[in-house]
Amino acid sequence: MKHLNKMKTAAVTAAVVLTSLAFLYFGTAGFWDIGISDRLNQRESVTNKKIYIIGIDDRTLEKYGPVNTWSREIPAKLVSLLNGADDARPAVIGFDVIYSEEADRETDDLFAAVCGEAGNVVAAMSFSFKEQPEQGADGRIVYNPYHVDYVIEPYDSLKNEVVRGFANTFVDADGYVRQAMAYLDYEGVREYSLSSQVYRIYQESRGEEAVFPAVHGRNNRFYFTYSGRPGGYSVVSMADVLDGTVNPAVFQDAIVLVGAYAVGMQDAYMPAIAHNSQMYGVEIHANIIEAMLEGKTQLPIPPLVYALAAALLCGVFYLCGEKMRMRYSAVLLAALVALDFIFAKVMYGNGRIVPVILLPVCLLVIYLAQMVRGYLAEIMRRRRVVNVFKQYVAPQVVDKISKDKDFELVIGGENRHIAVLFVDIRGFTTMSESLKPEEVVEILNEYLGLTTQAIFDNGGTLDKFVGDATMAVFNAPFDLDDYIFRAVATAWDMQAGAAAIAEKFRERYGKSVSFGIGVNCGNAVVGNIGCDFRMDYTAIGDTVNTAARLESNARPGQILISSEVYEAVKDRVEVTPIGEIPLKGKSKGVFVYQLDRVMGVR
Question: Are 330 and 367 in contact (CB under 8 A)?
Fold first, then answer.
């Protein structure tokens, strides 16, 4: 049952932690997580040397003016130069520039004709999205953030001669680009992205099949790994190509992307590979194409699968933490966090994105919760120990126990060498018969107060009151120095204090009583004896029985100690040998001494 309760607690804890943190994960914490994933997995590794960028850079703009003022003769000339030789043509030319408006009919048609004749040109188009309510498959109204509001296409004569691809760049909520849209179904037609079209044509030129990445979401997205940082690809100024500075033959069988490469053209974004830097849109297309060529695309792991696996691991960690010391739990936590990072990296390499910090944060919360709970439990344990022992243990004993981290209040005992003292009020029964009940209680409390104070003053443990008798043990529940002498000193203090009390009650009631005391030492079983709801800390065994028999044989005002006690303290006491006396319940007699004086009483 106890294990079942722990499992239930572990399950509830894991569920609560994961649920609460999931809300954070899909909010700000999600940005932190994906940001850490970027730093863990996005590494510069341009491997495809067949992707070139012809940049419309500052030198090109200085020479030809703003792009919106260009004659279509300029891009027509570029396409002609690149395809000038049949044996030195690029595999595909992708324009990350939208030629949507007709300018000059003659040059517009020229550009369209050149592109049509080349047969390897992909021209950019763009979708304008607007969030709009739509009816889902189940009849419910849902909001589609990628509803196409309108389309910006190449002008008529050009779009009939080229392959089109939408050039939209998709920015995540944290401002970074790490996803691309593979295709979009619009008005019954599947429109592919510019990157997808360039990739498809390039693969066909090599006689290979174009295998598009798996996508997720209603807008057909996929994550991709960047291969280059800003400036990581070979970039050639468009002006250098047009004026013949660069030989077009270098682009043979390659992918050529033409696009903005100047700050003033406002086509720059924040790439996931280089936080706080900007990358031109044409470079992002280059990275997307290479990711498709190299198979470096990813999908997020299904949330339910991850949640179940994470909850299971959190539950196991919780159960382990219940059985481990906190320092071992800390080591386990560190190991699991390291494994989580390794697992995330391995999964990323295999095309799956898993949260990086969500599980470590959950584990850390569980660890901290257990640490706080353990701290509070320790405080309660100490308080419970103090409350139990302060009733029969000296204050300094209680203080030591409360500070002992290894002390446990549990049912069970241990074998210890102890000294045991029994003291009984002689003549109390006879006296009580002639006194009022309140007078009896007054006398009893006075004497028991004396015995208790003497025990506590010498560091002993008050075991119990049995009517008008008192039992004390020394060297339990913790080690006590010189404990046998402390027991003897306690007996002497009781005897000395009894004289003043006897005189007091003789004057008040005309009656007096005195003590009979017995002290023995030896091995005994000490500990908490009883049940879960009622325990008694005591000592049992022959050593205890012998001490009790010594006390019962002591005359009023007499202290009897065993030979074992005498041997331990003989250089600090004066005694009178009594000799061997028979004790009830023992087959052999016990040699005893009467204590006459104690030197150096504490």
Answer: yes
Residue owning tokens 């074992």: 564
Measured distance CA(525)–CA(523) in Å, rounded: 7
Give the separation between CA 587 and CA 316, rounded to whole angstroms: 59
Interatomic CA distance for residues 66 and 77, integer angstroms: 17
Copy the structure tokens of residue 530.
């009883």
Give dist(CA 595, CA 574) in Å, integer. 6
| pLDDT band at 336; cut points 50, 70, 90 | very high
For residue 271, cis peptide bond before it (omega within 30 degrees of 0): no
Tokens 């089109």 locate to 164
The pTM assigned to this predicted structure is 0.66
Burial class (CB in 10 A: 0-12, 13-18, 19+), 537: buried
CB count within 10 Å of CB 579 equals: 9
In angstroms, how far apart are the furthest CA atoms of the chain? 140
The number of C-alpha atoms within 13 Å of 415 and in the hemisphere containing its C-beta is 4
For residues 469 and 448, what is the distance between their CA atoms, to the nearest angstrom?
8
Query: What does the pLDDT read at residue 34?
Result: 84
d(CA 144, CA 126): 18
pLDDT in tens, 177-188: 999 999 998 888
